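Structure tokens please, single chain.
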Amino acid sequence: MSDEDTSTILDEPQNPSRAARVRARRSGQFSFWSALTSVVTAAVVIATLFTMWTPANLFSNQMFSELMQAWRNNPTLSSVTPTPLPLPIIGIVSGHTGNDSGAVCADGLTEESVNRTIATLVQAKLVAEGYQVDLLDEFDDRLDGYRGQVLVSIHNDSCEYINDEATGFKVAAASSTSYPEKAARLRDCLVDRYQKATGLPYHPSTITPDMSSYHTFREIHTETTAAIIETGFLFLDRQMLTGHPDLVADGVAAGILCYMRNESVSPVQITP
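Here you go.
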């Protein structure tokens, strides 16, 4: 400290104005050094941070692993579950089930029991392929306005001997539909795949108006693509229908999958 300063301090009580000027000068010197110290400290901190957060460090495997581990350990981040899409809906009508026996053979075999066995197998096969499948009765209440991508009704033909030509299957597309081209494609898929699976001949000459105007077609929603299949004659085709129902169900399921997956198929002959 200089003699002038010492003198000034000693003289403060006698010269307050001069003492105030000295204190102000000292305060200014302190503020300057304080600010300079703060700037230098901040610079060191920033330099350190930039050194740590280089791109190599920021995106290193170690940092990424630590971030992933933190995400796994945080239940609020990992608890979001995506909403699954609804499964496509397919309706399978087991002909005559819940209503009557249908055709009855001399030994008591009923069309209804054959239809139900095949329909149940078809349902299982389509469920295994990832579809939601409704197994429906002949006059099921759910058929009123039923909405689905596809509906197929399964039936069989007479237990009586008609002639040697009374063998094979037949398929009719729904006549009351908003999209007849879709119903026709479903019919074509069923004919093609069922014939390949079973080896039974297609029998279009015996398709009746009762099939194309089947009552269920009028009950379901007009946008539901529908068809009816008679998988065989219970007299001449009985061995196939009762002895190999799994093969019969394979053919029906393959026809439905052909339609659902938009597989290629050739148009077939319709009712003459």
